[in-house]
């Protein structure tokens, strides 16, 4: 397992897996899961050239809840996100910093 990380604090730790800030080792991976944070920190398109040989590339996280077509066009095959099911209760919990619980449901959008 290879974890690509931007945080210098986390990179200084000791782990039972490879953690790096260099995306080049992703070329060795057959299956790649990418956090949706890459959509907000503008690093997703820079990672995709490292993923071209993988048999599966997915992106997941609460911020991935968008129309997936542009992600599919990049070569991503699955998009996992949280769908808000109970908006009023979700907003109450979100404002208080509480867990979302039953107010959301995990959803995967897959390419055809």
UniProtKB/TrEMBL annotation:
InterPro entries xrefs: DUF364
Ranges for domain Putative heavy-metal chelation: 2-108
Pfam families: DUF364
Domain of life according to the entry: Bacteria
Name of this chain's protein: Putative heavy-metal chelation domain-containing protein
